[in-house]
Amino acid sequence: MTAASAMTPLIGAILYPYGLWYTIGAMVVSWLIFLVPCGLFSEMGRELPLTALVVARRTYGRSATFLLSTLFSFVNMAFFGLNAAGGAHILAALTHTGAAPWYWIIGGSNVVLVLFGFKWLEYFYRYTALLFLICYGALTVYLATHYSLHVPAQTTSMQWGTAISVIGGFCILSWTYKTSTVSRFCLPADRTPQRRWYFLAPSLGIMVPNLAMGIMGAYSKEATGDWNIAVAGAHIPGWGAVAALGVALAIMHINAMNLYPATVDILVSLNTIRTPRSWEQPIATIVLGIAGVLLAQAGILSHAETFVTDAGELLGPFTFVMIVDWLWGLRDKHDIDSYFRPAHTTADRWRPAALTCFLAGFIVSFWGTRFLPATFYHAVPLSLVGSLTAALSYATVLFVRRRRSRDENPPDQMVPRVCSSESRSRPICASVCSSIAANASCNLAANLRWLSVSSSHAGTPGLRGANVVPCGTTPIST
Description:
This protein is mainly α. It has helices at about 10-15, 20-45, 50-60, 60-95, 100-115, 120-145, 160-170, 170-175, 180-185, 195-225, 230-235, 240-275, 280-300, 305-330, 345-350, 350-370, 375-380, 380-410, 425-440, 445-455; strands at about 420, 470.
């Protein structure tokens, strides 16, 4: 995220009319609001090492996830175009040429990096952050020593709702659903009893660079009239041009991280309906890279505020529904096989409850300005209101389902479940088995009957495992 901050001075320009202190306040409030969702989603990746859109198959259904994956691919592609435009403007200023050819040079280099895979991207990230810090540090020193810096003053009334929606869409809310894709490479949650810093790390890693670079962007706009300080560095003889070039290289390297998840999302959607093929990854990378460059040429940079706000309004409800389902809805959620089983029924392909709650939240976020009073959405971020609408409505659905299930199956009438000796080794199944054994009011004769039934079905096709035993009992050794 430090390296990705090459474009984050833009947030300082977007919030520039609110003044520096209100901009800092909005950043801090945004972090406090979205801290918990970001941490929960990141911990999901450490508990279950799968990408978000694979886990979403059980929340939204396979077919629905196909559509959402396709949609999110275009969101990431647009972020790719946004960063490509920023880098192209720096290189155009350095070479005193137009930006058009640089769009394709940056886009092409990113495509090549993604084609080599994440292993090579990680090599670039090892030094990209350091390169970025050195170059922007030099440019900041130049800005402070050669310009008369004044604190950016407020020129319009503060609208907390609008500012937080922009910040959420620009960084923390739009990035939350991607955190599990990265955290799945960290130490598993069961190997780290102290989880506080793992919980805080993603949101801090996103917001601290955005805060620092946003402040720099605001000062740059106040002093030079341009939020992109690297463009000013291009006109500094010698080291200034080198620093600007270093920033451009950092943008080129890190922008591959926008293209990489776009490719992953589209491949996840294709794999939902067909068997993966080796040629799909390079073709998807090239096509999405070209589309992102075309967006850069079309002028997405001039529509950045609208785009990032819309991104947050879409991704917020999606993320919040998944968090609620992960915490209270999914059964056997640590069973990796369950996320890859083919969909055989309509219920496996579409989950109407989750989709309806997601759409309800999206309607509030996206079209709330049409039916809510202006005083409300200027004070309260609609992306948060829509996300909470989706989360609370889905939590209500889960509560009603659980209540209805208890009414239809009272505890004293519940039949003991059957688990395999293989699945009892999994923590979640062991927990369920021990819970049922502790609460079941079975006498010795009933247990013996269940043991005999289980033993007689030990070799029955369709029952998983060689030794089938009732929950709460010890497997019979052969």
